[in-house]
């Protein structure tokens, strides 16, 4: 019981000392950080949806384009545009006029790259653990 009480006491001291600083920092950059995290989550969701759709389409590929400063993932079947994630207000043909279709990635390539990245991260963590 003594350890819990001393832990609470230390926590209260730290909160009293640094709480106002944390609140000031949150007031300054908290909303910006929240907005950036939301945008990143929306971009990841759109990418996942696009590759999920590409898996269901014959010869499905995904091409990333930028429209009004926002990443748009266009699902292609061969050279024909099928759908975009997130949805946009212009025709897909207009968006893809100057696009390099050779940069489109299939869902198989995407999954292979994800697996390679996960393995590389695991190896780095294992190497750090061995050094420690």
Q: Multimeric state of these chains? A: single chain
Helix content: 55-70%
User: In terms of per-residue confidence, which ranges show pLDDT below 50 for 5 or more consecutive residues?
Assistant: none
Radius of gyration: 23 Å
Q: List how many beta strands DSSP finds.
A: 4
Query: Domains counted in the coordinates: how many?
Result: 1
Give a written overview of the molecule.
- The chain is an alpha+beta fold.
- The protein has one domain (38-131).
- The protein is 64% helix and 18% strand.
- Strands 3-2-1-4 form a four-stranded antiparallel beta sheet.
- β2 and β3 (80-85) form a beta hairpin.
- The protein is elongated, with a radius of gyration of 23 Å.
- The protein starts with a helix and ends with a helix.
- 11% of the residues are buried.
- The mean pLDDT is 86.
Please give a handful of descriptors for the protein shown.
alpha+beta, 132 residues, 4 strands, 18% strand, 64% helix
SSE topology sketch:
Layout: H1 2-56, E1 60-67, E2 70-77, E3 80-85, H2 92-95, E4 105-106, H3 107-131
Antiparallel strand pairs: 1-2, 1-4, 2-3
């Amino acid at each position: 019981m003594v350890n819990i009480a001393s832990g609470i006491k230390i926590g209260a001291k730290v909160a009293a000392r640094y709480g106002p600083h944390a609140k000031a920092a949150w007031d300054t950059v908290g909303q910006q950080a929240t907005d950036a995290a939301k945008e990143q989550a929306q971009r990841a969701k759109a990418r996942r949806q696009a590759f999920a759709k590409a898996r269901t389409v014959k010869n499905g590929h995904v091409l990333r384009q930028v429209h009004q400063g926002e990443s748009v993932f266009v699902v292609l079947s061969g050279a024909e545009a099928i759908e975009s994630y997130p949805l946009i207000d212009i025709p897909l043909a207009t968006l893809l006029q100057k696009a390099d279709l050779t940069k489109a990635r299939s869902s198989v390539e995407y999954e292979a790259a994800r697996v390679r990245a996960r393995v590389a991260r695991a190896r780095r963590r294992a190497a750090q653990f061995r050094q420690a």
